[in-house]
Design goal:
It contains five helices and four strands. The strands form two sheets. Strands 1-2 form a two-stranded antiparallel ribbon. Strand 1 and strand 2 form a beta hairpin. It is flat, with a radius of gyration of 54 Å. The chain starts with 13 loop residues before the first helix and ends with a strand.
Amino acid sequence: MVRGKTVIERIEDTTSRQVTFSKRKGGLFKKARELGVLCDAQVGILLFSNTGRLYEYSNSTSGVNSIIERYQKVKEGQQFMSASAEAKFWQAEAERLRQQLQNLHEEHRQLLGQNLPGLGLEGLKGLENQLETSIHNIRLTKESLVYQENIELHKKLNIIRRENMDLQNKLNRQVEVNGIITSSTSQYNIAARIDPVHLELSHPDHAERNEQPQSPTLCL
């Protein structure tokens, strides 16, 4: 069964708090002892309970007092470092940085093909491997950039295609509308140019003329 995560907060119950203190104190001293044995470290612990009782542990043969004295000496030495010692420290730091800069300049010249005779066979092999690694990294970076550029170009091309399709659809709809308007206008003009036909029927007086009736005459 998985145990729940212990909430780190003050234990209100006095009995439970005392039991937990005793267990945790034993575990802390055990870890300190293991640390001293495994890492050959000098370890000292001072612990006060909530009742004011002092508990201490030290793996030093002279007890925890020797560790406290050593701590005080180191602390005083750090706080009261003389000006000459501080100057020497920064001089050494500047020399170290200057040497690193010189080594970087030398490596740069060697990468450019300069000062190669002084390398020797192993040095040349190392330089060759370094150059091959650099070329490989450059190619990978170049391929990645080309791939990203291709993706961007495809996106732009798709946008242009969609815009062209939308424009073509608009033109097609405009042509259809113009065709309908032109057709309607032509039909109206043709109808307006046709003259109306007037039909008249003539009925002569056959009885008075004593003539045979004839077919009605169509007058245009």
